[in-house]
Write a structure and sequence with these properties.
This is ABC transporter permease YtrC. It comes from Bacillus rugosus. With about 325 residues, the protein is mostly helical. The chain has eleven helices and two strands. Helix 10 packs antiparallel against helix 11.
């Protein structure tokens, strides 16, 4: 699966990025605890000890909330930058099959993301034993969850990179996929409310049932895991991003193995995706701008005018993004 020669090539090509990613992922968790401890010591130095609490609470935002960023950077360097610079053609000309190339790139980044955070978890666990805080909340759940979520982000960007021919297309496709489930549900429902003059929540037995359903459906949207709201809910929610990891891996692997490479610089490597995606972008533009026009004027005229603007904007954005090839 993973070839040693390719592994060495990826290491030499992206050595600085890999080392910086390892350093950040190893230190993010321990530094969060050290920062909490230093804040506690500062409180003791300036206030009465009864007003100072040494509590490690991962429900409060801290450094590990952005542990998904190195995964995004690694995926862009492994695929998007290679496409944009044209060096992917050289790699594909080497005596390795496409499966070996993708597996080597994918698992190098995956090991960096997972193993580095596991080391950071162990160091943090030792710091908690040494500092002995009064209370520790969500330590294991948050640490494990962030590993899963950062790996999911990496898998998503690798899948987007396997589908696209440049960095911009990779990032835009990944972002679109991260919010796509929300757009597919929210935009049609919002337009349904405008056209028929009803509120969706009124169709439910109670407002609580509606808000409970919508909050649970948000966990099907990958970008919702950027915030740490999932911490206070069931630990089994992490099974959803874990399943997404498998899905994105399969999409990336199949796409890299089957799709052509001679379209480097184009938005999509598989030209059959161009027209359906353009239609999808125009549809979202029409629905989104229609809602914006209605909310601005609270009138059907504003709604129709917004839809017209959305169709024009969606057409030009999709046309110049998808059909215009970027230079290496």
């Amino acid at each position: 699966m993973v070839d040693r020669g390719l592994l060495y090539r990826e290491w030499k090509q992206n050595q600085v990025v890999i080392l910086l990613s390892i350093a950040f992922l190893v230190l993010a968790n321990p530094l969060s605890i050290v920062n909490t401890y230093l804040s506690y010591q500062g409180c003791l130095a300036h206030q009465d000890p009864q007003y100072c609490d040494f509590i490690v609470n991962y429900r409060v935002s801290n450094l590990i909330d952005i542990n998904w960023v190195p995964g995004v950077i690694l995926a862009v360097c492994f695929l998007g930058m290679e496409r944009s610079k044209g060096t992917m053609d050289f790699i594909l000309s080497l005596p390795y099959n496409r499966s070996q190339i993708f597996q080597t790139k994918f698992w190098l980044g995956g090991i960096v993301i997972v193993l580095s955070q596991l080391i950071g978890f162990l160091v943090s666990w030792l710091l908690i034993l040494i500092y002995n805080p009064e209370h520790v909340y969500f330590f294991e759940h948050s640490s494990v969850g962030v590993i899963v979520i950062s790996f999911m982000a990496y898998c998503l960007l690798m899948a987007a990179g396997a589908l696209t021919g440049n960095v911009f297309a990779q990032l835009l496709t990944a972002f679109a996929a991260a919010v796509l489930p929300y757009l597919i549900v929210a935009l049609p429902l919002g337009n349904f409310e405008v056209v028929f003059g009803v509120s969706i929540w009124e169709l439910f037995p109670s407002p609580e049932a509606y808000f409970s359903l919508t909050s649970n459906l948000l966990y099907l949207v990958p970008i919702s895991y950027v915030a740490n709201g999932w911490l206070s809910d069931s630990k089994y929610i992490l099974l959803i991003p874990a399943a997404m990891c498998i899905l994105f891996y399969l999409i990336g692997y199949i796409s890299f193995k089957k799709h052509p490479s001679e379209r480097n610089g184009h938005f999509f490597l598989w030209n059959r995706l161009d027209r359906p995606v353009q239609i999808l972008v125009m549809s979202f533009g029409i629905l989104g701008f229609g809602l914006f026009g209605y909310s601005a004027g609270q009138s059907i005229i504003g709604y129709i005018f917004g839809m017209i603007i959305g169709a024009v904007v969606g057409f030009f954005v999709s046309y110049f993004s998808i059909y215009k090839k970027t230079k290496h």
